[in-house]
Design brief:
The complex is a heterodimer of chains A (131) and B (255).
Chain A: H1 2-29, E1 37-42, H2 43-48, E2 52-54, E3 58-63, E4 66-71, E5 82-84, E6 89-91, E7 98-99, E8 105-107, E9 119-121, E10 125-130
Antiparallel strand pairs in A: 1-10, 2-3, 3-4, 5-6, 6-7, 7-8, 9-10
Chain B: H1 12-22, H2 26-54, H3 56-59, H4 62-85, H5 89-103, H6 109-116, H7 119-122, H8 125-146, H9 149-153, H10 158-170, H11 191-199, H12 202-219, H13 228-253
Helix pairs in contact in B: 1-2, 2-4, 2-10, 4-5, 4-8, 5-6, 11-13, 12-13
Classes of the chains: A alpha+beta (131), B mainly alpha (255).
């Protein structure tokens, strides 16, 4: 009888300990994502950057009167992409994935095209939705 | 003066620059911090090699060997987080890669990311905490194993201390704040992983790194002793491949 009770208490204690550990771990690992934000890009900024503008999170490319907006994160491991004027390509500095100015994948480990961002034209520029 | 050394994870790069430019001996202490971590990493690596060479991994108990391997892994992790939290251009990229590598792990990737590298979600707070807590954990672990007062007073470690002090006086640890680069390299001990990531999928690279740790631990595991020469051979081969990929990255960055 005593042994049964001891076994029960041992199991119960382990269960409580497990539950508390799970709770602590769950608390430690829950973090909410920031909401999507809207960023205004002025036409002057794009003109000043000679139609290839690299912002902190996205890239704006102007061809004629059309605009294209891509995420600046490499689809491989998220490195911030840069522009190589010698090759006229968008290049990942970490693992050398390359994309053309239409966001199409050319070479490297990324294997995917760049993510396109939605934007809205306003009288002063572009309102880009960054997520 | 001590208070002004404080690092603010909300403005990491500014903190480091301020520390260098306006705090007395700030540049020296930052270099000291950097070189002591590099020396610790290199010394622990040679400690591992030395233990294997002299057969201590079999002579001592398994827990001692396990702790040595784990200390090395924790030390790599702390050195890497230190590199990330200075948050210059390459630190930022290294943090992003670590975050996305975590996410590439099925099932537990999201949890691991939120625990260690949730940079896109919450900035550097948790990376900074991991750096601090990891350092204390390692320091306590190493002290428990090695630091008898007698040994410290015998000045056996004095050459390391002198080297730690001399290196930061001679060399400066630059910050890489240049934007728009089309090629960057991570910390030297991760060049091999950076090279492997150019050719293999992220999960494959993580698996290779994980396998190396498991093999290293297995070397000290008594029941697996009869396979020691095989495991050792595979590890040497692994190290060779890692060095080759490191050299590829070095070549790419310097041509």
């Amino acid at each position: 009888m005593d042994k049964k009770r001891r076994n029960f208490l041992r199991l119960f204690s382990l269960g409580v300990l497990g539950f508390l550990t799970y709770g602590a771990f769950k608390n430690l690992t829950s973090l909410s994502s920031p909401p999507p934000k809207k960023v205004i890009v002025l036409f002057e900024e794009i003109e000043k950057a000679k139609d290839i503008l690299f912002k902190e999170n996205f890239i704006v490319i102007k061809t004629g009167s059309n605009f294209k907006v891509f995420s600046r994160k490499c689809p491989h491991l998220g490195c911030l992409l840069n522009y190589s004027p010698e090759e006229d390509l968008i290049v990942c500095p970490c693992h050398q994935s390359k994309f053309n100015l239409s966001g199409k994948f050319i070479s490297g480990p990324a294997k995917k095209d760049l993510t396109t961002y939605n934007y809205r034209l306003t009288s002063q520029g572009l309102e880009v939705e960054v997520f | 003066m001590v208070v002004s050394y404080h690092y603010f994870y909300t403005e990491p790069l500014y903190s480091v620059i301020r520390l260098e430019s306006s705090v007395p001996f700030g540049r020296f202490f930052r270099s000291l911090h950097y070189f002591s971590s590099q020396l610790a990493l290199i010394s622990t690596f040679f400690h591992l090699i030395d233990s294997l060479y002299k057969g201590w991994h079999h002579k001592k108990n398994f827990v001692a060997w396990l702790f040595l391997v784990l200390s090395f892994i924790v030390l790599i992790f702390i050195t890497f987080t230190g590199y990330v939290i200075r948050f210059d251009e390459v630190g930022k990229l290294a943090g992003t890669i670590a975050e996305n590598l975590c996410l590439s792990i099925p099932y537990v990737g999201g949890v691991l990311r939120d625990l260690l590298f949730p940079i896109s979600k919450g900035g550097l707070y948790r990376v900074y905490l991991a750096h601090i807590y990891g350092s204390f954990l390692l320091a306590i672990g190493l002290f428990v194993w090695h630091a008898s007062i007698k040994r410290v007073l015998s000045l056996k470690y004095a050459p390391y201390l002198y080297l730690n002090l001399i290196l930061p006086l001679i060399f400066y640890v630059p910050l890489e704040s240049e934007k728009g680069k089309t090629i960057v390299t991570g910390p030297w001990f991760f060049w091999g992983a950076q090279g492997l990531l150019k050719f293999l999928p992220p999960l494959g690279v993580l698996f290779l790194l994980f396998l190396a740790v498991v093999w290293l631990i297995l070397l000290g595991f008594k029941p697996a002793r009869k396979f020691s020469s095989w495991v050792g051979g595979i590890l040497i081969l692994w190290l060779l491949v890692y060095v080759i990929f490191s050299l590829i990255i070095y070549r790419d960055a310097h041509t």
